[in-house]
Amino acid sequence: MTQQAFIEALVPHVTKLFAEGSSIFPSIRIAQSALETGWKVPSWNNLGGYKVGNGRPNEFWTGRVVNKGTWEVYDGQRVDIVAAFRAYESIEHFFHDQDLLFELPRYQRVREARSPEAQAEMLYQCGYATDPQYANKLLSIINSHQLKQYDERRQTYMLKKEDADKMIRFLSAGWFTVQGNKEAEKEFNRLANELRKASGQESK
Question: Is 131 known to be catalytic?
């Protein structure tokens, strides 16, 4: 998989989560995934180096584990270790579980960051990674691959698909009251398509 193919594979997932209210910028999510995995999706779908820790299985993580080599920085020295990482059924499961992690008080400054630059720094400051160069590495990937363009997707749609579909069903209930009125029918269709666009769906 090329680096561009890796990016394109993640874009639909990270922009959807961001549009639905995730605090993690798509550019950060893609850069972190690239940095943590070496630009490839592992078979266990853990894209962020998320270790087992003290966590308990939940709706997104079944408790499955993969042990693999990695490294940390302790007292300024790189130390090679073997760690237990969470394994997931899909990329979506990983990202949702990671968002649960970021809801912890420890990561408040990550959630409140108002730019990719600030969020990259807060990931390090809050202890997500021990590498002192972690933020710089993330930003280098973001800048070299122009990943900030995907942070603008939230401006394109913010409405949840489920809410849009519910609104469209309510609209449909009134559809029969305007049968034969071409202008009203046209307006119903326009409003339904605006709701679809606002939730990232294709118009009909």
Answer: no
Question: What is the chain's alpha carbon radius of gyration, rounded to the nearest angstrom?
Answer: 21
Tell me the pLDDT tens digit for each residue of 35-56: 999 999 999 999 999 999 888 9
Instruction: Point out the catalytic residue in the list 8, 36, 89, 97.
Output: 97
For 43, which DSSP code? Answer: T
Q: Which of 8, 59, 72, 152 is catalytic?
A: 72
Q: List the chain domain ranges.
A: 3-156, 161-198
In 3D space, the residue among 122, 36, 110, 120 whose CA is nearest the CA of residue 72 turns out to be 36
CATH annotation of 3-156: 1.10.530.10
The predicted-structure confidence for 163-195, as pLDDT tens digits, reads as follows 888 888 877 777 677 777 778 778 878 888 877
Q: Judge whether 80 counts as a catalytic residue.
A: no
